[in-house]
């Protein structure tokens, strides 16, 4: 373990185009349940597909009830050691971009500027009208719900929905394009807390590796890239990233 951490730290310190890719595993240490494991979000709720949301008020009400339930953990969650370690790489001028599958906004809360973050699956702290594309805050949407609108509607008559990618909903074109380009340009690519099973996000390490990047995976469970990565570290993201950054910090 010590040798792997030392090698990862050395490669990161000398990197000219470091890309970090994060999944739900980094946020579980902040008390946010992941999606697929036992006791996770999809173990508790039935996923509501995008076409259901758009065609059924009942589905929209159920969707918002799920979102309200998620808020119990989201409202008290704070960036953990893993988030803060990646933010430190930004402070040191090493981080080129942070690509995340997470929707919790904790990377931005950790101090990484939004322009350095690519949110492939959106951000649940924002709410978007599906018709006019107007954005409002989660707090504003909550006010509408508390006022009696169980499935909030925009003044334009469009449906408000958390600004996240639902099952069956198209990925954001510009964010995906930027992620592919920046992954392909990386010289060091770090995967943290992702099983790398959800496409097309999971292709980012492949773009990086095919372009010659040094691939580091920090994860508790197996991924499809474990046999082709250059460094594989099994462990909790917070502890591992803290130890890596400690070796980089002057």
Kindly report the name of the CATH homologous superfamily of the largest domain. Answer: TPP-binding domain
Silhouette: elongated
- The number of domains is 2
Number of helices: 10
H and E string: HEHHHHEHEEEHEHEHEEH
Helix content: 25-40%
CATH class value of the largest domain:
Alpha Beta
Summary keywords:
250 residues; alpha/beta; Rossmann fold; SIR2/SIRT2 'Small Domain'; 6-stranded parallel beta sheet; 3-stranded antiparallel beta sheet; 9 strands; 38% helix; 18% strand
Question: Brief description of this entry?
Answer:
The chain is built from 10 helices and 9 strands. The protein has a 6-stranded parallel sheet, with helices on both faces. Strands 5-4-6 form a 3-stranded antiparallel sheet. Helix content is 38%, strand content 18%.
Description:
- This protein has helices at 2-13, 41-44, 50-55, 57-74, 81-91, 106-109, 138-146, 173-185, 204-210, 237-248, and strands at residues 18-22, 95-100, 117-119, 122-129, 135-137, 160-164, 188-192, 214-219, 231-234.
- A six-stranded parallel beta sheet has the order 3-2-1-7-8-9, sandwiched between helices. Strands 5-4-6 form a three-stranded antiparallel beta sheet.
- With 250 residues, it is of the alpha/beta class.
- Helix 1 crosses helix 10 (237-248), helix 5 (81-91) packs parallel to helix 10 and helix 8 runs parallel beside helix 9 (204-210).
- The two termini are 22 Å apart.
